[in-house]
């Protein structure tokens, strides 16, 4: 098994940073305002080129439909034709951008972020997120106010497109063995999280022949059921429901449905890195020697599984675009991250929660074994994930000092995304979030106490660096 580390290329600084790891996400009212949106998408209009319309969709957050209308109106007045697709998951928008021959796609969503956030995800005609170089050009246009000025006779057109969800679900079903899933008749509890999966996943799962129970299937941008991120602590009701209904599986999505989480029939939360390894193991049985793509945040479990399966593992920076590029450039048959992003290139090269739900249902139906047994067969590591508040202005200095400190004590460092320090069979990763003002701290070890100790060490180190920097300002 070969491990390939993809290096990143740094952009020239000098313009305000509008984009994070995955598009633009900011607090509504404080940062996202109508004027801000009009200026950003006037700058965006001056950047995009090529034939075809721009397709726009949105999630159920309280301001998403209003933001989508501002985007559509701004683009139209800047001479761009627009198709409004309505409410749908982010992977559904990405699929339709490619299927409809669009020049670009815009998804109004803040994904798993708290309710006060909203934002926009950007994709190109291939459905992939736009690259950092494109983000930099948009930021440059925004700063220098390089806008397109159109007269009345240069305006674009706005149209509605209502077949996007149907087109997307048809593709998922065409890549799933419905004969196997319908014969198994699994009982599944689906937690839509009051998000966009409510418009796709109940229909999808019923088409797969499961006996379906739903939680939080009423769309609501306030997320009354639980916070949008499908973490173990947020899925307590789903865990209980799986046991109470005697279900074979529990499934949960985040607000825009690019992420997914699973609960086994015992009511246990299955970490994303475990699902990643489980899927990779089966895929390598079906495709011996194939390539699997993942990110630097992933567990050693995936390395063990790929090595055992005789495959090749490609490791990239974290984030949807770096993993998608790794899948594309290395012809990987599957990709994924520990956060619940899984990539199915035969369907589309983007993190896709509904597609992942279909493939896990197919896997359990085909093997005809309890999900818990499949999970327990995998190599066992313990991962602790935590975070520390991090002012954006200190991201660079904090990472520089973390690299210096950890470099003196670790066996080796990987620095393509934050700082990942290896100590024998354990590792510690500290990396700034691209979507929130926090530093994420990950630690992995064979024993849970060791993982917890290492995570505390990482937290204390980051807090100490921040305190020292602030005192010296």
Quick description:
The protein is α/β, with parallel strands linked by helices and 473 residues long. It is 37% helix and 22% strand.
- CATH level 1 name of the largest domain: Alpha Beta
Q: Give a quick account of the main beta sheet: strands, pairing sense, barrel closure.
A: 6 strands, mixed
Classification by helices and strands = alpha/beta
Q: Are there runs of 5+ residues with pLDDT below 50, and where?
A: 6-13
Percent in strands: 15-25%
From the N-terminal CA to the C-terminal CA, the straight-line distance is: 47 Å
Strand order of the main beta sheet, please? 1-14-13-15-16-17
The CATH homologous superfamily of the largest domain corresponds to Alpha-D-Glucose-1,6-Bisphosphate, subunit A, domain 3
The CATH topology of the largest domain corresponds to Alpha-D-Glucose-1,6-Bisphosphate, Chain A, domain 3
Helix share bin: 25-40%
- Give the total of beta strands: 22
Mean of residue pLDDT values: 93
What is the domain total for the residues? 3
The dominant shape is globular
Itemize the secondary structure elements and their pairings:
Layout lengths: L2 E3 L18 E4 L6 H14 L6 E5 L5 H14 L4 E6 L2 H10 L4 E5 L8 E7 L8 H13 L13 E3 L3 H11 L3 H7 L2 E5 L9 H7 L3 E5 L20 H9 L4 E5 L6 E4 L5 E2 L1 H15 L4 E5 L4 H9 L3 E5 L3 H10 L4 E3 L5 E3 L3 E4 L1 H15 L3 H6 L5 E8 L5 H13 L4 E3 L4 E5 L2 E7 L5 E8 L2 H24 L2
Parallel strand pairs: 1-14, 3-4, 3-5, 4-7, 8-9, 8-10, 13-14, 13-15
Antiparallel strand pairs: 2-6, 5-6, 10-11, 11-12, 15-16, 16-17, 18-22, 19-20, 20-21, 21-22
């Amino acid at each position: 098994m070969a491990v390939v580390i993809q290096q990143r290329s740094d952009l020239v600084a000098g313009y305000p940073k509008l984009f994070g790891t995955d598009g633009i996400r900011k607090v509504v009212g404080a940062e996202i305002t109508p004027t801000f949106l009009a200026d950003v998408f006037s700058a965006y209009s001056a950047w995009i080129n090529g034939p075809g319309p721009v397709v726009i969709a949105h999630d159920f957050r309280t301001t998403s439909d209003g933001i989508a209308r501002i985007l559509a109106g701004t683009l139209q007045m800047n001479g761009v034709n627009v198709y409004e697709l309505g409410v749908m998951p982010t992977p559904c928008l990405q699929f339709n951008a490619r299927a409809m021959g669009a020049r670009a796609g815009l998804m109004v969503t803040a994904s798993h972020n708290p309710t006060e956030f909203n934002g926009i995800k950007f994709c190109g005609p291939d459905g992939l997120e736009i690259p950092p170089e494109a983000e930099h050009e948009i930021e440059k246009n925004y700063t220098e106010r390089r806008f397109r000025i159109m007269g009345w006779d240069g305006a674009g057109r706005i149209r509605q497109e209502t077949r996007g969800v149907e087109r997307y679900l048809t593709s998922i079903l065409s890549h799933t063995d419905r004969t196997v899933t319908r014969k198994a008749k699994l009982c599944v509890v689906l937690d839509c999280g009051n998000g966009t999966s409510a418009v796709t996943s109940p229909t999808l799962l019923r088409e797969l022949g499961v006996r379906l129970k739903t939680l939080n299937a009423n769309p609501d941008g306030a997320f009354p059921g639980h916070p949008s991120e499908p973490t173990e602590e947020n899925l307590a009701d789903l865990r209980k429901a799986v046991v109470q209904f005697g279900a074979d599986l529990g499934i949960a999505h985040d607000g825009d449905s690019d992420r997914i989480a699973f609960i086994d029939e015992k009511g246990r939360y299955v970490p994303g890195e475990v699902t990643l390894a489980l899927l990779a193991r089966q895929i390598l049985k079906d495709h011996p020697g194939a390539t699997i793509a993942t990110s630097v945040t992933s567990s050693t479990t995936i390395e063990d599984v790929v090595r055992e399966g005789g495959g090749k593992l490609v490791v990239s920076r974290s984030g949807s675009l770096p993993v998608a590029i790794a899948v594309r450039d290395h012809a990987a048959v599957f990709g994924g991250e520990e956060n619940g992003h899984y990539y199915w290139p035969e369907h589309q090269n983007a993190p896709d929660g509904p597609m992942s739900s279909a493939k896990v249902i197919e896997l359990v139906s085909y093997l005809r074994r309890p999900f818990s047994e499949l999970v327990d067969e995998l190599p066992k590591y313990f991962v602790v994930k935590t975070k520390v508040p991090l002012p954006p202005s200190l991201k660079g200095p904090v990472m520089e000092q973390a690299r210096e400190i950890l470099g003196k004590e670790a066996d080796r460092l990987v620095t393509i995304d934050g700082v990942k320090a290896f100590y024998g069979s354990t590792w510690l990763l500290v990396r700034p979030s691209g979507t929130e003002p926090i530093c994420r701290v990950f630690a992995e070890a064979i024993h849970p106490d060791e993982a917890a100790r290492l995570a505390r060490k990482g937290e204390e180190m980051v807090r100490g660096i921040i305190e020292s920097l602030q005192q010296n300002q």
